[in-house]
Sequence to fold (386 residues):
Amino acid sequence: MNNFEFKNPTKVIFGKDTIAKLSEEIPADAKVLLLYGGGSIKKNGIYDQVKTALSNVNVTEFGGIPANPEYAVLMEALKVIKDKEITYLLAVGGGSVIDGTKFLSAAALYDGDTPWDILTQNIKTEKGMPFGTVLTLPATGSEMNSGSVITRKETQEKLAMGGPGLFPVFSILDPQVITSIPERQLANGLTDAFTHVLEQYMTYPIGARLQDRFAESILQTLIEVAPNVIKDPTDYKAAADFMWSCTMALNGLIQKGVPTDWAVHAIGHELTAMFGIDHARTLAVIAPSHYKFNFEAKKEKLAQYAERVWNVTEGSIDDKAYAAIEKTEAFFKELGIDTKLSDYTGDYEGTAEKISKRFTDRGWEGLGEHQSLTPDNVEKIVKMAY
Fold:
């Protein structure tokens, strides 16, 4: 196992009817900006629960953060923060709202003239405006990590940011919220969390047994609960396992001491920026092709995954590794997730070349766990995914 340091300061408040605990977590003298998305929280009762819990707090609201948090919209929210002298942020939503809130946390205290520089210059935020979250859609793990991804429509870019100052102070996780989530979003959440684990696990063996088994247990749990989550979101036991698995998939724990990949995400972000495809679905498009292209480098771990997660016990290492890719793709399809770019757009010709050029222009010459994946390799992977 590689050397590592691990610190996660986020307080997690998990379980039924925990939204009421908001009043215990936000300072009484805070000027709070409540951030949310398209307004679904006003239909499913979450908004009312939040407002009741914050009845004695000074709250300003900002809604309309889109599914891929858009820079122009967030800049409007930043103006509210400045004008209203906001001191505390509260994200009530899924990963997009929380990611947008992290950007605002950084931008609110940023000294520069153009907050977009935080993303383009890869500026690590050491201190942001404090914020908490109420999770309404399990998927990204953003409720317990310090990373964020922001979209800018005018440039068709989707870039990542982060830093130790961007952990939520607290996150409230009530599994009951999934009862009102549409099936499409539940499938996205399962796929997103599953792929998050694969990005930190599907590399090469280094003898980190506990880390491997942490990762494998999350994958097994997601596979096990997926049918119930989709069929009956009111199944609290399945909902609780689903929500906690999504959080554990990307709270920093399983990546410590091991190599990680993240090329699938880097490529997938481009597909979202170019075509507006749901983030999780871009991952399902790229992952199978990525593993096939890098088969020799990943086959030992693929075979281990086949044995331990999918119970594939027959055949050679190569046989098991190929079976692992097939099983993964089949799992996505069972969730209703298509795995080819042509399933989402007829305008895919030239996509691979465009993404390759973008990576070259940014100086992204070595992606993946070996930092050996070139823009030319990326082009080939995307073409395999057509």
Q: What stands out?
A: The chain is about 45% helix and 10% strand. Residues 209-231 form the longest helix (23 residues).
